[in-house]
Amino acid sequence: MRTFQTAVAGAAIAALMTAPSFASDQGHKKDHEQHKSHWSYSGEAGPQHWGSLKQAYTACGTGSQQSPINIQTQRALASKVGDIAFSYKPTPIKVLNNGHTIQVNYAPGNTMTVSGKTYELLQFHFHSPSEHMLNDKHSEMEVHLVHKGADGKLAVVGVMMNTGKVLNTLSPVWNRLPHELNQVTLNPGTINAADLLPANTKNYYHYMGSLTTPPCTESVSWYVMKEAVEVAANQVAKFAGLIGDNARPVQNVNRRFILANE
Questions:
Q1: Are residues 139 and 216 located together in one domain of the fold?
Q2: Considering the chain, what is the average pLDDT of its residues?
Q3: I need a labelling partner for 79 at 20 to 30 A (CA). Which of 30, 38, 114, 248 fits?
Q4: 100 counts as catalytic
Q5: Which of 100, 125, 127, 138 is catalytic?
């Protein structure tokens, strides 16, 4: 009997000794997988490696309609895509720092309509320098206004931001930027996305592309405004000081057409 009890006790002790090791190994493996799938704008998790970080990110490396692109304006095809009807109202200022950009989430009921299709504005966010290039040149910043149609398709309006006078529309956002990862701030007052658009919204470039961040989903309708807006140098510096450079390199145009709405 003593021998049997001793054997059982020994087995129990062995189990207790090995269980934490197994759990620890599993934990390390999970941490490694999470770390491996995390993406950034530089280093081993930078844009050139996005496609191999995670299966869901494959399009980042193999997609043929990726964004952003370098828009050569003289090669754009003059076309009547149609004027964009923006229907934006002021919204409470809800700001998110997701670690990759500063994003302002928009209240429901704000839309853009183009070519007979209506998309709802979900959020807008910023990149510095600009992600798109016009004739081989970046702007200091670019704002992306992200919309979604009833069918789930996305449409993004890109507006170049060149240094100049203060963009007062940004002041209530910039005055209380969230500094912590995934931190959300509810800033006083409201903001109207219409104030981020250039005076002339009739002239723009349109092409089919993708999200510019993982998972780099394609079939995104892009509308890049020809006319830029101005933003103060210190506003650019404040964003860059918090987020750093967050522009994906331009991607191959391949066999896509770029249309110029005129």
A1: yes
A2: 89
A3: 248
A4: yes
A5: 100
